[in-house]
Amino acid sequence: MSEMVESSALSALQKKELLHRLARIEGQLRGVQKLVALAATPADFDAVAQQMAAARKALDRSFVQLLTNTMQTQSANATSLAEAQASASKLAAMLDKFA
């Protein structure tokens, strides 16, 4: 993993936790790839679908974690109410666009 840079959006701990979660998802996806390669029966493909759904849900939770942490950090670092409101508006737009 490459070096983490300073951020006003996420703390070092928040980044570390998010990266850990993403690494677990990456492992899940490698497992799904292996399941697909080895699948031979309809039941095998049921297992693939179940694991894909689990990985998708884990990625969705990571997205929520990203937005929540960013909201908390940017609100805490805001120097004015207007800056906090602008940050919240940008995050709300991101949620609307990607969720």
From TrEMBL:
InterPro entries from the UniProt entry: Metal_Tscrpt_repr, Metal_Tscrpt_repr_sf
Pfam family, one: Trns_repr_metal
Name assigned to this protein: Metal-sensing transcriptional repressor
PANTHER family: TRANSCRIPTIONAL REPRESSOR FRMR, TRANSCRIPTIONAL REPRESSOR FRMR-RELATED
Transmembrane feature ranges: none
Domain of life, source organism: Bacteria
Gene3D superfamilies named among the record's database cross-references: Metal-sensitive repressor, helix protomer
Record-stated family: Belongs to the FrmR/RcnR family.
